[in-house]
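Entry for the shared binder. Reason: the reviewer on the internal report wants the predicted structure included alongside the sequence.
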Amino acid sequence: MKSKNIAAIDLGTNSFHLVIVRPGDRYQFDVIGKSKEEVRLGSGGGDLDHIGEEAMERGIEALSRFMQLARGHQATVRAVATSALREAHNRDAFLERARKECGLNIEIIPGREEARLIYLGALQALPVFDRQTLLVDIGGGSTEFVIGKSGQPLYAVSLKLGAIRLNDRFFAGDSINANRVQECRRYIRVALAGVAADIAKQGFELAVGCSGTIETLAEMVRQTDPDGGDARLKEAELNPETLAATTEKILSIGEHKKRARLPGLDEKRADIIVPGAILLDEIFQALRVQRMVVSPYALREGVIMDTLIRASNRKEMIADIRRDSVRYLAESMLGRNTREWKATQHITFLAGRLLDHLMTANILRGLTLNDSFLLQSASLLHNVGTIIAHSAHHKHSYYIIKNSESLMGFTPLELEIIAQVARYHRKSAPSRKHSDFQSLPRPEQDQVRKLAGVLRVAVNLERGSEQRVKDLQLVLDQKQRTIRILVEPDKQRGKPVNVSLEIWAARSMTALLEEVTNRHIEIEAVTGTDGD
């Protein structure tokens, strides 16, 4: 399986999606092709129980094009269908045509399995692996709800609430009025009651949304945000206030042709965005969602991940996708079991130890466990630029990290932070003359300075690339506002090795850490060992 490309096709009620990937190690994959076609497979008074002739033709033509793309990449194809085909009485006719005309066998997956695969896909795009996460996916015919943690779905359910289904039931005929809106809201509230009670019992730390309706609403919010700044560095997200305001704006425009002019709204979605916005607004209220982050990955990426897991001999569930992708990129650039890789791993250990001591002592404030992980990631990747050239390799590392498609599960802002921390591990510190640094929001600038200050010291404590510094300790002198970093040398034949080179090198790179801690820093060997 590792040598074969894989394609996943998601046959949704509104759109068909194709993604083609090249598998790597540890369930990693690189996306090498994508396609999307609006098919509107389901229709009919809210029941979605029949696929019309025109819809069937659109669907088969789309699948034929998808298969041509997949064959061009020599990809093994797996196709899954959701509510429209689950419920259609004439689905066998569609499945038979797909087999004969496209050479494609389609899996019709149950709602709970759809929910599980969506969660599996979302894990590849956001850093939510260790957090109890509520995932909501609004499709054309159904909405999936999942609560998961550490790759395991704890609760999953699929409701027959979807943008097309609700549009057919309440808003057919391109007209909106207050009575229809209220009827739609009441219908949704009744349908959500049981799920809301179940989710309240389970609880969640973070809400994640995915698929077209939610992505569109988030984009509409982002394009009208006066304080949006550089949107590329921010997570797409929604909160009750921005969602309510956007929903009100959508409902204020009766005709979908006029509605299509709203910033961020695709003309093809201008009709079904009405029930979609109402549905998400009701979900926010019923589930008491205060913030929802949007995942660009969903069912099709979940199918890819599930396929990789099935093809593997390993029986365990997927690990933290962020950690694995960082290690994958670092190893592919530096090589496994090389001198550079061993040194990089030790630098990561020392950086983590130093940051942990500084956070425990409450010297570096405002940092979290996630910041510690971002530092670890930057540490593992800080030298990948040497594959281009050793000269200015810190700048090459920045470029590689920021543009690599191998790093998964990070937000754009997190990738920017990792890239900048790696970029500032040597040479000049962050400065106003550096445009990339200046483009960061002020809190993230402070974050980069703190993490880079730690990394600069850790890198130089491994100056000889021989892991001579075994560990380090911190001693604080509050009166003198001094931090003493005590270096513990490794031992050879029972005697401490000489770490004078490492201490000298680290002392030369303390300026940034002194600035962010507002303390003088001294570095010396543990008493009674060979230092300087």
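Summary line for the report: The radius of gyration is 27 Å.
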